[in-house]
Design brief:
single chain, two-stranded antiparallel ribbon, 4-stranded antiparallel sheet, elongated, alpha+beta
Amino acid sequence: MTIIYAILIFCMLIFVHEFGHFITAKACGVKVNEFAIGMGPAFFQRERGETTYSLRVFPIGGFCAMEGEDEDSDDPRAFNNKPAWQRAIVLAAGSAMNVITCIVLLVAVYLIVGAATTTIGTVSDGYPAQEAGIRAGDRLVSIEGSEIKTWNDVSLNVPGEEAGTVKVVVDRDGKELTFNVGTKYNEESGRYILGVKTKVVHSPVQAVAGGFKGTWNLTKFMYSTLKQLFTGEVSTKELSGPVGIVYAVNTTASTGFMNVVYLAALLSLNLAIINMLPFPALDGGRLLFLAIRKITGRRVTDKMEGYVHLAGMVCLFALMIYVTFNDVIRFIIPIFS
């Protein structure tokens, strides 16, 4: 079942990404030669109009092959002959679709599971929060001086190790109360907690708001992680490829289907952000070249840009091999040890 989940997630994320390129290319009058899901030899092909639609053997990747995308073409409908603003829309549309997918999936999760609030729903018996006098219905204002904007902020601000006390400010009936709360180890979560659970609400308005807010918070977290990768605060050994994703799907699937949906939302947003990085061969790199060529004119030729993107593709393949090797060491070898 894990492999099926993983393949479905891969195919869905690639489909919506490439479909974003496809529909905007068609809308801008760009000739699309082929729309494919998967890589390698095609096992299904059907031609409709000027476009060939295909499914390929390996369910990783996909492409929307536009006329004049990687080479000069004299066709007036070729990508390279379209105005810069239209090319920019087509290039950005794939990542935009992945962001929209993330929002939609999170809205679905919040509609079904419910949206967490900063209001305490229950206080666990025998835990420090109960002993300190915190009650259900209290709204968390801050922990250790850090404002609590979402329930995720609670775990981020509670120490991951045993602490003396934690300063917790709550709003109770319009009055702010301060408590010094200890922490207690919880085997289920594997960390020290206060002993409070969120009040969950089932509301379409809250779900939509949660979808947008959740996507924004995940975006900030991912960019923060990327920054830490570049500064060396996070090791490149923490990067994961297809093997790591399958492992994550397997781990997540055991905790329930909705967690798989949440993981799909996370991966969709990750795909959007990675693709918009200003690196050759990625959509962000192509957008960068589009801006450079708009400023410099024809000083950067299609041939020069093609060589740079080819070099970028080689680097990306090398990175994929590296992260796959790391994934095998981290996840596969321990299984047989």
